[in-house]
Design brief:
Residues 4-81 form the DNA replication/recombination mediator RecO N-terminal domain. By secondary structure, this protein is α+β, with helices and mostly antiparallel strands. Helices cover 40% and strands 24% of the residues. The chain has seven helices and eight strands; from the N terminus they run βββββααααβββααα.
Length: 258
């Protein structure tokens, strides 16, 4: 059974299928994540070319199937995130977030709030907000979708919500100084990094323009998040490995300039 209707969607990925066709994965406002089949992309007059580029958003006229592949028939109000599509660094961060969404979300499960957050995240990339902060916010938010959200609200023992904290893998959450003894192998992370990880778990994207971090703090935040992903999620995405290599390139260039 199928129905032709209009849906808002963000292109998560595009994969070539045979010679002339593509498989396009969209995250939509009303149907969640769906795979679409697009025919005839080699035609010189192919009208959907801009709409099915990675990270494009549009109103798609689609044949939505209850099972199997759906079909894109037309698109309007196409918005291409030009700098995200052309800047290798922004492309890397956006690709990683899209792959995280693909891994974390079930097919055909609507999540209008996350849909809006993904669109806002792409807007912030385009507006030259700090891409590492945007990436970290999504990494932390996706813990919930993987079903492994740590306790970031306060100390897992006494519930204290103010002051310095450290993270305990053993207890799957934060420890206040009075309870550091409960886990000798706690991460010994910097209190500042833990503070911002807690902030990123709840902050609105409208507020991130007020956040400015030193590289030292960003590096520590990423260290903690990477440890948590290794322990709790176990993903080894190619896009994340590329981002790590990208940072190595940046460090080499900085050393050469010095």
């Amino acid at each position: 059974m199928s129905q032709l209707e209009e849906v808002e969607g963000l292109v998560l990925s595009v994969r070539k299928h045979r010679e002339r066709d593509y498989l396009v994965k969209l995250f939509t406002d009303r149907y969640g994540k769906l795979m679409f089949f697009v025919r005839g992309t080699k035609n010189p007059n192919f009208k959907l070319r801009s709409a099915i580029q990675p990270f494009a958003r549009a109103s798609f006229i689609a044949d939505i199937r209850s099972e199997g592949l759906s079909f894109i028939r037309d698109a309007k109000n196409v918005q291409s995130y030009t700098s995200v599509q052309t800047d290798i660094f922004k492309t890397a961060y956006a690709t990683y977030i899209a792959q995280l969404a693909d891994a974390a979300l079930e097919d055909r499960k609507a999540d209008p709030l996350l849909f809006e957050q993904l669109l806002t995240g792409m807007d912030r990339f385009e507006e030259d907000f700090d891409p590492e902060i945007i990436m970290n916010i999504f990494e932390i938010r996706f813990f919930r979708y993987f079903g492994v959200m740590p306790e970031f609200r306060g100390c897992v023992f006494c519930g204290l919500t103010d002051g310095p904290f450290d993270y305990s893998s053993r207890h799957h959450g934060l420890l206040c100084p009075k309870h550091f003894h409960e886990d000798e192998r706690r991460l010994h992370a910097s209190p500042k990094a833990i503070h911002f990880i807690r902030l990123f778990s709840v902050v609105s994207f409208d507020k991130i323009n007020t956040i400015s971090l030193k590289q030292e703090t960003k590096t520590e935040i990423q260290r903690v998040i990477d440890i948590l992903y290794d322990e709790l999620v176990g993903l080894n995405l190619k896009s994340k490995r590329f981002i790590k290599k990208m940072h190595q390139w940046e460090n080499l260039l900085k050393r050469e300039e010095d």
